[in-house]
Amino acid sequence: MRLPLAWVRDYIDLDAPSDEIVRRLAMLGFPVESVERRPPLAGVVVGRVATVERHPNADRLSLCTLDVGADEPLTIATAATNVAAGQVVPVARIGAVLAGPDGGSLQIAPRTMRGIASQGMLCSAAELGLEADWFEDGILQLEPELAAGTDALAHYRLGDDVLEVEVTANRVDAMSVLGLARELAAAFEVPLREPATTSRPLEPPTASTFMVTLASPDCRRFVAQRVTGLRVGVSPAAMRIRLALAGQRPIDSIVDVSNFVMLELGAPPHFYDAAKLSGRALTVRDARAGELLRTLDGEERSLDESALVVADASGPIGLAGLRGGAASEVTAATTSILIETASFAGPRVRRMGARLGLRTDASSRHEKTIPLGLVDLAAARAAHLLEAAGARAHAPSVAGAAHVAATPIAVSTKTIERTLGFRPSIRETQGALERLGFTVTVRSAEWQFDDFGQSAYLATPPPWRGDVAIPVDVVEEVARAIGYDRIEAILPTTEPQIIASGDYENERRVAAALAALGYREAIAYSLQPHDAYETFARAGIEVAEPVEIDNPLSAEQRYLRFSLLPGLLALAAKFQAAAPLRTFEIGHTFARAATTGAPPVEMEAVAWTLVGARSDDPQWRDSGFLTFKGEAEALLRALTGRVAETVTTRVAALHPGKTASLVVGGKDVATIGAVDPRLLLAYGIERPIYAGLLRLRDLPAHATPVYRPASRFPAVERDLALVVAPDVPAREIAFVVRASGDGLVRGVRVFDEYRGPQVGAGKKSLAVRVTLQRDDATLTDAEVDACIGLVLAALRDQLGAEIRA
Amino acid sequence: MSDLASQLEAVGASLRATLEQVADATQLDEARVRFLGRSGELTAVRRSIGTLPAADRPAAGKTINEAAAELEASIAARGRALEARALEASLATAIDVTFPGSKALTGSIHPLRRTLEDACAYFERRGFAVVLGPEIETERNAFDALNIPADHPAREGFDTFYLGEYLLRPHTSPMQIRVMLEHPAPVAIVVPGKTYRRDANDARHTYMFHQIEGLQIGANVHMGHLKGVLTGLCREIFGSEQAVRFRPSFFPFTEPSAEIDTTCPACAGLGCRTCSGSGWIEIGGCGMVHPNVLRAVGYDPDEVGGWAFGCGIERLALTRYGMDDIRVFFENDPAVLELLA
């Protein structure tokens, strides 16, 4: 909310510069979002117009003489047409500085206008830095009782900054100038001047007095107070200037009072034109279905039971805490009004506003439930301000409890120390609470002598605080008043940990391992349009319908992602020019629950993709796959400490002939493969792309490898050229070589494959490198030959392999 | 004799002439073979000894051996000279070291994960467990148990995404409830993770974002500990000069509550555009766990108490990397990921 320091200073004397006020407000829990500096002004005094004459040499100019409290009156020429003798107006003397157009500045110099020297200038609101449209055309009219010669800038505090202050939801009492002034008074330890509420005795109740009935528990207090003898006019300049600085346009002498009280106290009054009400009974009740109310904004609103209304004999006359009805609107002809102030249930007001699409300055306060202690005060204050304009206030009719008798909250010094880590002295604690308006009794056997003994404070919150209910609430108030800066930073000790961090460690290790292999992590939004699913479905990929959000912000964010792949494919499509592109993501994927009522199924998934270079591989070879597979094997080795085996498999979204399971310890851990070419078409990806998928839950624990001494004897490598049927997998060859090599085989690697005319149709040729080694001796040529002989025989017998000539 | 001497003299002259032409180690080897090898010139001379009278042979042999040693020495000298010259030539060569290095294959973790991991690493060193939780939550864990009243605006569909009776967690705090329900006090955990709120995406907001949540409950845990831990966290992420300031605030699940400010890293607290001139940036909310939250998980607020905090990771990372648009984190442009790696 906008907080004009000019207004704050009506209640407290505050010499501090605004930077210091900003800091203190922040440390009280009211951060200042911005500071609006007022335009620099100087040399403006209050002048009383003595005479006004037509300028002898100019039809459009008037010549005024003004009493500015000096010996000699000033003669000033003006083009304004609203000046008359007897008025009190702001006068800029020679040398004065005013606000110029476009945020500039205007210096007043001696000037001769059509032959007559003008000794200054009469000021409009705009020249004093105020919103021109919100004030009268021409010269600003000041209060008639102001003494000529008064420093107008100091009187209205026109140079004071305006702060934009953030107020937390629990402090509706501080959504007001007085509320924040009260906080500042406590922080600066200066006295607070409460605004006046009484000036003369109230008119006694008569037959015209309204009776109020509360027919809904959502209104806890309601005050209806009649004010008669009103004459609608212009509010005093001081009130209009305060409203304008607070961002509220001045309207007239009645409406301004209701806005002024709302901004001053935080409890918004509503004024009905009393003459336009039916009967003398008001009821606060639920609306009836189909009831209509034309609100002040001219909108005809159809209500139902969810609306809370104030009604007279004719039906609803206002939406509780939200907006009044047009039928009882205060106009220029109004002479008597009914002031309504009330405390409604905040959530009810908020829901009603949301339903009707209506939010007002008043409802932003009522949404937070006006404290009972402010209801009567606001009515009395409004009545008082109207009286000042000559009206008569009548005794109010009230309903509901004035103020729930606040029970003192007992807070021990132990609670304070346990919470804050230190114990302020009794004197300090009591002083802090009292400055915030609490009533405090100290119960302590020997508090005079021993500040370290146990004492208890009985703290009664002030009536405007609805938010303080339990001992720790009071502790916070103590801390706020003495300053959170007093809390000392200390490192805690922790007990030996029994809660496992395993899932997090797994994620971290996967991310680190993929990054070490050259993959970059991406984080995509978890919500997707239906399109992501449809693209898969249209491409002929088998996927289940994704989980739907009840209240998405847009169709783009309506479904929870069913897989990490759509996100990675979209990235691949977008950035494929940067290939080779290695990307991974770790995140949750979601599937619909198998049984109704159960939550959707959530999985911690990992996916990684490699966008490769276009290659001229023949159909039967995919060297990009082998690159990708090598990286996947290294990943699983790093994560599990073991070597993965490859098994042919099929999964949705991967190429049916280029997909493998990686198996560790007999368990499928990951799936890798070339992405289904139908998806490449669907996503517009023009390069080969491979994807790996795993679920963190499936990762076996990392097995610590067992040490085996490296052989000190040389290894021998032999390359074999074999011709086999095309469906013999490399894995089988390695298996047979190892099994048949008499225990000497230390490594087998199928490193080349050829198909074509040189081996003939229905065959393929493979190059296999076999590594032989003994731990206890150097292999002899005879041993090597014998071993290779065994291997070849086994390959021939078991796989029909021939040695290629 | 003189015949032998002249023969040796001729071989020596021939070698010297050859050595002068020798330019590298290979040619030097060839020269050695030519003169000293099995069928070399000196060997030919040595063979001629057989034609001499037996009495002269020892002297001739000696002379030849001496000549051989001389030849050996001059070949070796030439070898050393060649080596010296090669070394000199090598030392005199320079390459363009500014020529680009071959590109290494590098990967990276996302800047948001890096920031989360740095924060988690700090807490792990302090003895906290790092726990992860589901993103789909119940109203009980996300609101009821956290003392968020039934009619709180956050519960209405304006702020929270709903899935029937479940919801996408609007904060990581439900994990406080899950952990406390499962474990008796003391508890010391941090929870990194994704959270969701119905905010339209703009430079400062995305409907999905990351938080880190901390919770410590024990018999003697107070607000000073909270301040100490968070001061350490800010120093971990922004550097050792960081200060932390607590400002009063309001959250339903903590009392007293505070906003956490740390020295603006962009201006070291002097005041700049990043911190709107205040010298401080806001990094999260915190406070002492509300007694109603402790009761909701079966703890006795008279016996144990503690603190909780929550920080938005995107905001930390924006400040850390000097960025001003949060959406960039979710665009995953490889060039940006590489830059922030």
Mean pLDDT of chain B: 91
Biggest beta-sheet profile of chain B: 7 strands, mixed
Biggest sheet statistics of chain A = 7 strands, mixed
Uncertain segments of chain A of ≥5 residues (pLDDT<50)? 447-451
Order of helices and strands of chain B: HHHHHEEHEEHEEHEEEHEHH
- The rounded distance between the terminal residues' Cα atoms of chain A is 91 Å
- Share of helix of chain B, binned: 40-55%
**What's the β-strand tally of chain A?**
39
* Quaternary organization: heterodimer
The percent of residues in helical segments of chain A reads 25-40%
Q: Helical segment tally of chain B?
A: 11
Q: How are the strands of the biggest sheet of chain A laid out side by side?
A: 27-30-31-35-34-33-32
**Rough shape of chain B?**
rod-shaped
C-alpha termini separation of chain B: 84 Å
The greatest interface between two protein chains, and residues involved on each side, is: A-B, 90 and 88 residues
Shape of chain A: elongated
Structural class of chain B: alpha+beta
Structural class of chain A: alpha+beta
How big is the Rg of chain B? 42 Å
Mean pLDDT over the residues of chain A? 93
Describe the fold and architecture.
Chain A is α+β, with helices and mostly antiparallel strands and 805 residues long. In chain A, the strands form 10 sheets. In chain A, strands 27-30-31-35-34-33-32 form a 7-stranded mixed beta sheet, sandwiched between helices. In chain A, helix 5 (237-245) packs across helix 6, helix 10 (413-420) packs across helix 12 (471-482) and helix 11 (426-435) crosses helix 12. The longest helix of chain A has 19 residues, at 781-799. Chain A is elongated and about 130 Å long. Chain B has 341 residues and is an alpha+beta fold. Helices cover 41% and strands 20% of the residues of chain B. Chain B has 11 helices and 10 strands. In chain B, the strands form 2 sheets. Chain B has a 7-stranded mixed beta sheet with strand order 1-5-6-10-9-8-7, sandwiched between helices. In chain B, helix 1 (2-21) runs parallel beside helix 4, helix 5 crosses helix 8 (223-238) and helix 5 (111-125) packs across helix 10 (313-321). Chains A and B meet through helix 2, helix 7, helix 10, helix 12 and helix 13 of A and helix 5, strand 1, strand 3, strand 5 and strand 6 of B.
